Amino acid sequence: MLLSSILKSNGAASAASIPFEACRVTDPPKLSRFGFLPRSVCVGIIPYYTPACDGPRTVSAYAVPRDYHIFVRAAAERIADDFGAAFPGERIRVCGDNSPIDEADAAARAGLGVIGRNRLLITPEHSSFVFIFEAFSTLPPEREAVEPGRCLDCGRCAEACPAAFGDPEGCLSALTQTKGELSPGQEELIRRNRSVWGCDVCQLVCPYTERARRNGTLYSTDPWFLEDNIACPDPELIRDGQRFRERAYSWRGPGPILRNLALLGEGGGKE
Ligand code: SF4
Ligand code: SF4
C-alpha cells in the first residue's frame, strides 16, 4: 500500500510523494505544531471546475461548489484512518490551503504540473482549476523531487487581466475580498467585471485550460463538487447563516460580498 494510493482512493485525481526537505517551508510555526518532523509530503490534486461554472456567474469557479475545506476535512479523517490501518506507529497530518509549505511549488516538484505566470499550479490534465492538499508523514518518499517546470509563458494571462497583473494587492480577486470602503476606481472594477468574489480571467484564457476543455478533462467528476452549485449567490443566501457557512467565501464574513452584490445592484449593502 502506498500513501499516494490512499489519497487517490479518498478524492485525489492524482497524487505523488516526495521528500519533505525538497519543499519550501513558508510557515515554520505551523510545521512545529505537527509534533513530528515529516520525512515526506504526499501532494494530492482535486479538480473543482463544474458545468455550472460555464453559465452566468458572479463568483470564482472554486466558490461555485460548497466550500472545499469541508471536503478536505472529511477526506483527511478517512485518509488518517486508512493510514493508521496500513502503517501502524507512523505519523500523518493532512493539510489543504492551511499548509506550512508552498503548495503549488510542492505539487510542481512532485511532478503534478508546472507553475504558471500567474503563480498557480497548472496540471496537464485538469489545467489550473485544481485544489491542492498534502499529507505530511513519517513515511519515506515514494519518488525524488524534480525541478518545478514553467508554463508556456505565452502572456495571454497578463494581456487579459482586468486589473494589475503580477501585483497581488491590485488583483481583482484580492479586491473582492477586502473589507470596508473601496475607492471609486475599485468599485468600478468590480462592476465592470461583474464579480462579487474572485476572478478567473487569467485561468480561463490559459491554453492549458483550453486543452483540458477540448480533452474533456477540465471538469470535476466527484459528486461532492457537482452537487449544490451556486454560481450567482444572492443577499438572501449570504444572510442565511446555515447555507452561508457552507460557501467558500464565508470565512471573510458577509460584509465584503454583500457590499459587492450592492455594487452590482443586487441588494446587499453594509452589515
Ligand atoms: S496564459 Fe500563458 S503565460 Fe499565462 S499561465 Fe497560461 S501558459 Fe502561462
Ligand atoms: S485573478 Fe484576475 S485580476 Fe488577478 S491576476 Fe488573474 S486575471 Fe488579473
What would a concise description of this structure say?
This protein is an alpha+beta fold. The protein has 2 domains: 3-150, no CATH class; 156-263, no CATH class.
Largest beta-sheet characterization = 4 strands, antiparallel
Order of helices and strands: HEHEHEHEEEEHHHHHHHHH
Uncertain runs? none
* Biggest sheet, spatial arrangement of strands: 1-2-6-3
Distance between the termini: 51 Å
Structural class: alpha+beta
Q: How many strand units?
A: 7
Give the bound compounds: iron/sulfur cluster
Give the domain tally. Answer: 2
Average the pLDDT over all residues and give the rounded result: 95
Assess the beta-strand content as a share of residues.
Answer: 5-15%
- Give me the number of helical elements: 13
* Rg estimate, integer Å: 19 Å
* Global outline: globular
Residue share in helix: 25-40%
